[in-house]
Amino acid sequence: MSDAVLQYLRDHRYEQINHLIDFLKIPSISTDKQNKEDVKRAADFVANYVRHIGFEKVEIQPTKGHPLVYAEWMGAGEDAPTVLVYGHYDVQPADPLELWESPPFEPVIRENRLYARGTSDDKGQVFMHLAVFEAFMRTEGKLPINVKLCIEGEEEIGSENLYSILDEKKEQFAADFAIISDSGMVSNDQPTILYGLKGFTGLEFTVHGPKNDLHSGLYGGAVRNPLMAMAHLLASLKNEEEVVTVEGFYDDVEPLLASERILMSEVPVEDYPKTTGVDQTISEKGYTAIEHTMARPTLEINGMFGGYQGEGTKTIIPSKATAKLTCRLVPGQDPETIQNRLIDHLEKHVPAGVQLELKKEPLSAKAYKVDPNHPLIKKAAESYQKGFGKEAVYVRMGGSIPVLEWIDSIYKMPIVLLGFGTPDDRLHSPNESFPLANFDRGLITLVDYYQSVRKEK
Amino acid sequence: MSDAVLQYLRDHRYEQINHLIDFLKIPSISTDKQNKEDVKRAADFVANYVRHIGFEKVEIQPTKGHPLVYAEWMGAGEDAPTVLVYGHYDVQPADPLELWESPPFEPVIRENRLYARGTSDDKGQVFMHLAVFEAFMRTEGKLPINVKLCIEGEEEIGSENLYSILDEKKEQFAADFAIISDSGMVSNDQPTILYGLKGFTGLEFTVHGPKNDLHSGLYGGAVRNPLMAMAHLLASLKNEEEVVTVEGFYDDVEPLLASERILMSEVPVEDYPKTTGVDQTISEKGYTAIEHTMARPTLEINGMFGGYQGEGTKTIIPSKATAKLTCRLVPGQDPETIQNRLIDHLEKHVPAGVQLELKKEPLSAKAYKVDPNHPLIKKAAESYQKGFGKEAVYVRMGGSIPVLEWIDSIYKMPIVLLGFGTPDDRLHSPNESFPLANFDRGLITLVDYYQSVRKEK
């Protein structure tokens, strides 16, 4: 590893963290129209920073929504590999504001953690790459490999315009592999290779009974109660052993390899009672909680409602009941196929006397998985080791990042997820923070990684 | 039947309806503290009216809540029977006001129906007795039998203070039988002997899972989803054939007699598609909708909620789910026993990984039933025939009137339910009304009934 680069990072730590603080001060909340100009300012920050470092081509590309920052430095030459670095400069809303110990857009350091909205998700992690690029340029005058930056402003609102940009500008964004630092580690100092995420599909449905709420005394025994019909329908979807009982749900699931089960058994188990308040983990029959969350599909009811919800009693048969379902999918499962199998199941099981109204969730994603033995992944594990002094663990996660599937399907390039977040970061919640120790260790990891992948072409 | 009494009613129809309109103008909404004085004014109206007619003892008895009007006329002598006439002068709230075609407390007649809150439930029906008493007193100078009036002001808020009054003042309220006109007929001109009502018990329960809503991707597969646990619990209570599957639920149910099934088969079937909007009736296996609503116990979910209920999708595992249940009970079933059997069932079936929180519904009632062949009931059928020119049908109803059980258990007297309401009256809803045709036919029925029961002692 280049001592000069690391020395630069040590020497300029205060200055760089101040730059990050300036970046964090911009309330680039993508979902709130009132912050449209702030989002633009955050895009400008990124563009100006990389222009200042010496990136050759820097563009703020307009979209129908918030702009995308594209920048490239191709000075490593045609023999060197090209990396596409993806990240996002937009942030989640900060409310409820009253729960923040310090204002969300006035960054402060407490107990060696930097507190502000976006410190971990994802401004802080994006900035780590910028800091490393700066150090390379200022000391060696160049980057180890060719770099294309794609930093978007709509991740927190579903990356609404990214797919079409990636699809239309194939040549511009083409690279040998991608790096994304927008994820976390299983514990605060445990380097974590994230090699798979789940896909996603959803469905909302309403069971319609009588045209109005009815008197339970006068009509109980004459009409089907939509809430009871809903209970029967929902209970028919999954049994008490957490096995989904929808026909064909598991048909296309890639089986969990014995080698992966070994990797998963090495992952330190989350302290579930502490993080969830639940004494007992419950997972699919035949699989541990780690295996189920990481690598087996799930079906969850996210919301359900109907009838009287106030204090006390109201003796009605309600006119309708609604439930919202989502599934997390694993490699092999097609979101649309699963959505249709859910619909088939519900239509087949809906009892007489009530009608079913279906609403397909428009968002969906396929699962993403990269071979944990891929050389780029193995190298990431080695760089993590150098940065954190600890051997990395290999995990898949139950979350979904649609951009992974897009990059995968459009460019067929491997994606390396180099995340430095921690379970204590409180993403999307009040008091988001990021440990400065991981900022420092992450920089070492990134310096090593960019150098070590130089020959990967 | 006394022609003079009937002639009086015909001659004074306009005047009496104007008195009823004055009574209806008072917004005696018992649940609303702002109407406390109005409720009092409605009590005064009843007391003044009967004092004016010539009742001997008229009291406005204070309670912890709204007062009870007690009045008696015992001039028929010790050889004549004494009737306790129960009714209520309080009304339901009128909101949503914007749905009323004319203001709820400004009575108007449209198409021979009197529109106002309380026309059917129960001021209008109470007033019919007052009108008949007035006619007897003004023409014959006496009533055919001894009368005790008990007109309360808290029926719409659960008759909170009535039980203790009935229990404490046994001697004052003692009578040979009771008449209540606070119910309806199966169609607008079909006299209906209501000889049984259901009892009632209820339960609210919450399934508690994680301490906070959890990310469905990170925790799906590790914790039990309270909404799914709720669905399984609810589905375990009743099967799709509408048979309650709670152990012991039917143990104490008095079987439905063949003779009653014949009576019920003669009841004109409600036009369920019109009144409910549901094409297909659904009832307990082995019973018709009429039999189930009238004479078999029911278990209904009145409300259910948990998790995300807004627009679109929120990928959470919610921390909890709540359901509200009530049962309508038939003779033989004890409300507390059934409540406990429900609790036993839920505690036995709650799956691992979630906790159950139970909240017993404090209100309960036993079912009430009188022998449809009782001479007082047979006489009611005859009087109905005179008033309406049609043979009465015999029904039981799925609703619950706790005062029936109290009068039954404290006084052991038969109760005659002489109701004149119709399915179109819209009780508890905007545009409550009462057909003036039934006012006229009901007066004839009551005149005949009071005369014909003279010898029933």
Topology:
Two copies of one chain form a homodimer.
Chain A: H1 3-11, H2 13-24, H3 36-53, E1 57-61, E2 68-73, E3 82-88, E4 108-110, E5 113-115, H4 123-140, E6 146-152, H5 162-168, H6 170-173, E7 177-180, E8 192-197, E9 199-208, E10 214-215, H7 216-219, H8 226-235, H9 258-265, H10 272-276, H11 289-295, E11 298-307, E12 316-317, E13 320-329, H12 335-349, E14 355-360, E15 368-369, H13 375-388, E16 393-397, H14 402-411, E17 415-417, E18 433-435, H15 436-452
Helix pairs in contact in A: 1-4, 2-4, 4-15, 5-14, 13-15
Description:
With 457 residues, chain A is α+β, with helices and mostly antiparallel strands. Chain A folds into 2 domains: 3-197 and 367-455, 3-Layer(aba) Sandwich (Aminopeptidase); 199-265 and 281-360, 2-Layer Sandwich (Alpha-Beta Plaits), CATH 3.30.70. Chain A has helices at residues 3-11, 13-24, 36-53, 123-140, 162-168, 170-173, 216-219, 226-235, 258-265, 272-276, 289-295, 335-349, 375-388, 402-411, 436-452, and strands at 57-61, 68-73, 82-88, 108-110, 113-115, 146-152, 177-180, 192-197, 199-208, 214-215, 298-307, 316-317, 320-329, 355-360, 368-369, 393-397, 415-417, 433-435. A 6-stranded mixed beta sheet of chain A has the order 1-2-6-3-7-17, sandwiched between helices. The longest helix of chain A is centred in the first third of the chain and has 18 residues, at 36-53. Chains A, B: This is Dipeptidase. Chains A, B: Its EC number is 3.4.13.-. Chains A, B: Residues 195-352 form the Peptidase M20 dimerisation domain. Chains A, B: GO terms for molecular function: dipeptidase activity; metal ion binding.
